Amino acid sequence: MAKYLVEYKPPSWAQHLKNVPTHKVELAMENTPIHEWNLPGIPDGFSLHIKRHDMTGSSLSGNKVGKLEFLLADAILKGCKHVITCGTSPSNHCRALALACRQLGLVPHLFLTMTSEDLGCRGNILLDRLSGADIYMMPPDSDDERDVHPKMESLARRIMSETGEKSCLVPKGGANLIGCFGSMAIFDELYNQGALDRFDDVMVACGSSGTASGICIANYLAGSPLRVHGVLVRHDPEFAHDHVNSTLRQLGVEGVRSEDIFSIIDTYQGEGYSISKQEELDFIVEVSSTTGVLVDPTYTGKAAWGVMQEMKNNPGRFKGRRVLFVHTGGMFGLFDGRMDDMLMQHGAETKKVRMCSKHEAPREAVNGSPTDHDGE
Ligand SMILES: Cc1ncc(COP(=O)(O)O)c(C=O)c1O
Known about the structure:
Blueprint: E1 6-7, E2 23-24, E3 34-36, E4 47-51, H1 64-77, E5 80-88, H2 92-104, E6 107-113, H3 123-131, E7 134-138, H4 144-163, E8 166-170, H5 177-192, H6 195-198, E9 201-206, H7 210-221, E10 227-232, H8 237-251, H9 258-261, E11 263-265, H10 278-291, H11 300-313, E12 322-326, H12 340-350
Parallel strand pairs: 4-12, 5-6, 5-8, 6-7, 9-10, 9-12, 10-11
Antiparallel strand pairs: 1-2, 3-4
Helix pairs in contact: 1-2, 1-5, 2-3, 5-7, 7-8
Bound molecules: pyridoxal-5'-phosphate (PLP).
């Protein structure tokens, strides 16, 4: 496994930090594209682009991959054969970690806190199962500190006593100091893509705040003029600022607080984490059917909804500014069944889905224009 390690050379603005990793593994596709994004509902006078960080890989995909490049290198450096992590049952982090472990010859173990009674086999769970990860289902009201972490530690001890093999424990979302270097790499990529000249504001979905924290700290250290905003899809501003402040301290960065370098876009968490309102689901369909970009119900769909609402409701904040939304992936969340009924209803109502006979032209013309396709 050591063959996968490559030496990590931090960018110049990160060289003086404490706890800089020495190695990483290479998992992500780099230089994900940036393009204009005509997000539906955005009023005139606003400029929005999107960084397609959903394209960091097909099965790994999104913001988790960069964190895993450092977290799994750390596991290998520590001589671990097993990697134990946790998340909610539809976790993108757990899915990406499980597949990346297999890519590197590591053994993944996932503690999944159930969000419904049955684990099922859709969305990320399908991929978790395909990875062959060992899955430990935890009751829905499990608390990470109290219930999940002790179980992860006792599993590591059991593996050691039964096999003599070491395990590495990775926190939810990969949101620790090592993972933060993967999120700082998103900023580094933006820097190298000329984003500092092309944009004024960067927005990103914010759950555990690990991703936003890496981007805003790197942005500060590099002396960049960009303003970094986290669109909260979970937790509250205090939680997000605490996470950034604690990361600053662990990196040894003095004299600055999260509140000075990180702007929060609040109130678009909706009904709660991973719970979707009908208007959010409708928006997801509108986004994909007008822009071709897939956003998921838990993270990027809510965040994009928040961006659009904020531009409408609080126009002074972004009008005339060049805004870049970082798409953090999560596409497999679209396959968890949540969208199915509404899409089938939508297809029937809009008459977009129709039966065709093999031999006759379709009865309904497409957008009013006659066609001679026979549907095959
Ligand atoms: C697709 C997607 N976007 C955004 C986030 C939020 O990232 P973070 O937890 O680092 O704030 C997550 C976290 O799981 C995610 O899966």
